[in-house]
Amino acid sequence: MALTVEQCDILLDILGETKVRTHTLESLSNELHKKFDSCDYFKVGTCLVMMLQQDLLKEPEQKLVAITLLYELYRGEALANTPFANVFNHLLHPPEHQSSVGSPKQEYPGQLPKLTPPEKQFLTQLLSDVPKDAILKKTATQIINSDVGNTQTNFDFSVVQLLLAEKQSELPHTCKTGIPVVLSLPEKTNNYTTERNDYAALVKTIATGDNAPINKVYKPEFVTLAPPLLNTDDEMVWLNPTNIKEHTVAYDVTMCVPDTAGQEARQLMNKAYKSALSLQQQQQLLGELENDSKLVYHIGLTPSKLPELVENNPLIAIEVLLKLMQSKQITEYFSVLVNMEMSLHSMEVVNRLTTTVDLPTEFVHLYISNCISTCETIKDRYMQNRLVRLVCVFLQSLIRNKIINVQELFIEVQAFCIEFSRIREAAALFRLLKQLESGEQIGLVSSPTIMKAKLEG
Amino acid sequence: MAEKEEFERAVDVVTEQEQEYAQKALNEFKKNNYAGALQFINKLDNRTNDFKVAHNKALVEYCKSDFRKNETFQKNLTSICNQFKIRLDKLDDVDQCIVHYNQAILLYHQQQYTNAIYIMDRVYKFIEPMDDALAKQVSLFAIELQLCVRQSDKALSLINYLENQLINGTPNIKLLDKTVKEKDKKAPQPLDPAMEEFKKKLIKYKIRCYLMNHNLEIANKEISNLLKDKQNFQALFLAANLEYLKGNLIESQKLLAAVPPDYLVYNDSGESSTLMFYNNMGVIHHAMGKPNLACHYFQLALKEDIALTNNAKKDKGMDDKPLYALGGSKYHELMYNLGVSLLHAKRPVQAFDCLIIAVRRYHRNARLWMRLAECCIMATKESNEVDFDIQKRQKEIIVNVIGSQDKQKVILTTNVSKDKKYSTESQSYAVPVPSLEFASLCLRNASTLLPSDTVSSPIPLFLIPGGIPPVPSCSPSPAPSSPLSPESVMSLRNSILAASAYVALCLGDYILALEHAENLLQQPRLSGAHKLLGHLYCAEALVLLDKISEALEHLNPENVKHINLELPKGDENEEKRIKTSPPLKWFPHNLPTAIATMQYNFAVAKTIRGQLEDAIGLLKQIWQMSSKCKVPGHIIMLLLYIELKLGRPEPARKLVKQYLFQNRRKHVEIHHSLLRCS
């Protein structure tokens, strides 16, 4: 982002002490445009400004040429849009003049040289809309020595100033705080043999290279404290013996050991999936299950076989599920039960379970929801009536036995009752809901057998 | 379906001859005579449809190889599963449990705990129908796995269930029907020696759980029971662990020293007591606040670990390691310990190298990511003290002097502190080097992995058709460390927020910085230091966002009352039980220094707003504090800046000359210039 040494040499050559005296401003400007690409104009401009700020242009002609070139870099563009518009503003209206405080001489960071009246007039002409061919045909020396007097051009700079101020106000404060890092620190000495060469070298040190000071600013800095290390307990890993050797592979001791124990129970179960067992068979199976609490795991029942068992032998299903309550697999059985097709038998099983053990509420709710949606979607009118009556009696039983908290399902159940209000049981359930709402006492507990009798009767 | 039943029936038919062979094979197996067992199993070869035979054959062959042919065994198990259509992600027959269990065992010894747990969760569902011996083996294994992933609560619930189910025989299901309950209750069985042994094992697991979840009182009781047996060296380790957690570091050291060095030899047991000794000594010294000594011990432990794992490979000139030595290496855990100690020893770059290895294995650990970020931060700024070293800072004010005589120029610094790095490089942040860019990624990981405030909701029942729950993703946990207490989570969250705000500020992302800092200030419990930082970070970010008035409010010295590093006590005035954190130091050490920092930043904000005279007044106040406490070194540069801005280059030049050419009378001079300015 800075000029190369070669580019800097070219620029210094254009600003050469003798050259600025002999060449017209126009020819110098043309040379500049010829030797630099437009992408480098900004760099050239910053370098020119720096030379003006740091007083590195010895002769007044050089200064004038530098100012002219700065303008010429962006000739043809609206002044307020060019990057160095503010420099011209400062040249014409130095800050001291704005704050007319009569205090000791003030000098601001990046201060620009003060212009003489002819220079000022020249700059005003340059910035104004009048044709500039005439003044650019002159040399810098001619302009400096020109007479101010009669040709007063009154260029109204206030429009540009306003635009600039507007732009500035959009910037956050932090963007406007930077000051150049180059600070002049004159040495008091009697030796006045400063050579021109020094200037060039100085300009190059400041304005060229990757790390050029010209591109740097100092802004007021915050102190940003780094946070303390995390203070925490029991972080380090303590090692205790773990006897990893104890965890080793296992031999299947049941190899070729015939599973005689549950042979008969197993066969009965196989039958039970397909058809209803006789009362005697039922008693035999339940008796065997009762005698050996672990037998239930060895009768070949899996969650996928449960629906068949429920449909054909609900009583067996209930007993088996009760025995499996403590098993880790029970949720899988529940999952199957809740998702199987709704029927009198499945409802009977669920009803029995709710009165015997604590079922997860999530399960009961899901089952009720499934029942309701089955009723709503079924096509066969006769079957629908039958199912609705079933569900209503089932729900009444659940509510009366306080298995479910009706508040949690209130909206769903109420909608169901209203939809099927033509059915007597639904109307009865609705009344029960209303009673509950008004906090009335609920009547007798209806037992599952009554429910069954009611339905089949 | 029918076909399957036919098939099952065929398997069910077992001749007496076959039964005899099977019995003999079992007897030989029990005597560890694997060759003999294999002979009998081979006689059952005609039972090609019996997967139990195939399984046992593969197993005995593996045992015969001295548990070394791991890969062959693994392959055989897989092919048996394929042949008999046993799917590892599904289990619905108790007979298949053993294949699954053995697969899980192999995974466990390869340290693939999550996969092993996934299998064992399914096996465990069949714990009731399993025969007693296998059930015990399976339960202990399930407990060990939960401990491996530091889920002490899950482990404890398994233990509870075991105690109820296998030992007392009472079901722990709540039955509404009282009669059923009484029927199921059995008379307590007389304890046989095997049961006694099993109970002892359970107690050890229990103690490990209690130590892990910091239930020290119960742990204490159980350990003192175990310690009655003087030869119980495992109990000594546990006792030392307990004393360490209580903060009795010397006592802990004594207990450790009482364990004979050759108690556990790696080649016999897959564990080395020497390694454990070194590691635990390191842990103790770290807690004592001697991180360098701790590092030394961890390095010894690492050397031991590397030697052991290499030896086990070369042992007996075989390529395969025995099963129990497959995953015995504690490399990643040791790297974690070493890394944290190095960080405390202020060697952040080395610490980073260690932790970056540990994080490969423990990438779900929020605190570990936080530690990595701390390494990055410390590597870029060793301590805040540098910002308060006026002598050093003033030397850095002038970068260069060029030209001479009346054209002499000085080049001032662009920034006094080197924290800020507004990177324009296109390099990815994800390069694992100790940089602030990488720190920002670490911190994002850390906050993502941080456990949420709400206690994790109970796992819902799976009542969805289709049955199989999805593979559990391995949950974020502080493994390899013990689970985090709610308080630790809180202080971890605060630290992550503070570090995130700091890193975002340094990288120039002040919108994010403000978000983190404000979030930090909203936390319910905040240490004094974090409160100070929250206000400082907020203010800086707000100034950069051009909201200077809001920033000034944050810089009110009334906002900070103390700069303690600990969380303030919670509502329950409970005594802190665990005392293992090393003594921590942070700069600023005292409140006045913290206040001076706030005041300085206040002056900066004023300066930026153009209230230069106010700012000088503040600088004067801060300077007067410098006799009592440390003040930021930036103060001189700010003074220089204000002088220049006020259009008074002469005092500024004077300041520069002072620091450039004569460093001696600096205090007096600054003092004068400050007094004069105001």
From TrEMBL, chain A:
Q: Where the protein is mainly located, per its record?
A: cytoplasm
A Gene Ontology biological process in which this protein takes part is: regulatory ncRNA-mediated gene silencing
**Which Gene Ontology cellular-component terms appear in the entry?**
CCR4-NOT complex; cytoplasm; nucleus
Instruction: Please indicate which superkingdom the organism of origin belongs to.
Output: Eukaryota
The record's keywords, sorted A to Z, are:
Cytoplasm, Nucleus, RNA-mediated gene silencing, Transcription, Transcription regulation
User: One Pfam annotation, family name?
Assistant: CNOT11
- Matches recorded under InterPro entries: CNOT11 (IPR019312)
Q: Where in the cell is it found?
A: Cytoplasm; Nucleus
Q: Which family is it part of?
A: Belongs to the CNOT11 family.
What is the protein name stated in its UniProt record? CCR4-NOT transcription complex subunit 11
Query: What is the originating organism of this protein?
Result: Tribolium castaneum
The primary gene name is AUGUSTUS-3.0.2_09147
From TrEMBL, chain B:
PANTHER family per the record? Answer: CCR4-NOT TRANSCRIPTION COMPLEX SUBUNIT 10
Q: Which domain of life is it from?
A: Eukaryota
Any one annotated GO CC term: nucleus
What's the family? Answer: Belongs to the CNOT10 family.
Gene symbol of the encoding locus: AUGUSTUS-3.0.2_08992
Sorted UniProt keywords: Cytoplasm, Nucleus, RNA-mediated gene silencing, Transcription, Transcription regulation, Translation regulation
| Subcellular locations according to the entry | Cytoplasm; Nucleus
**What does the record give as the function of this protein?**
Component of the CCR4-NOT complex which is one of the major cellular mRNA deadenylases and is linked to various cellular processes including bulk mRNA degradation, miRNA-mediated repression, translational repression during translational initiation and general transcription regulation.
Q: Which GO annotations describe the biological process of this protein?
A: mRNA catabolic process; negative regulation of translation; regulatory ncRNA-mediated gene silencing
Descriptive protein name = CCR4-NOT transcription complex subunit 10
Which InterPro entries has this protein been placed in? CNOT10, TPR-like_helical_dom_sf, TPR_rpt
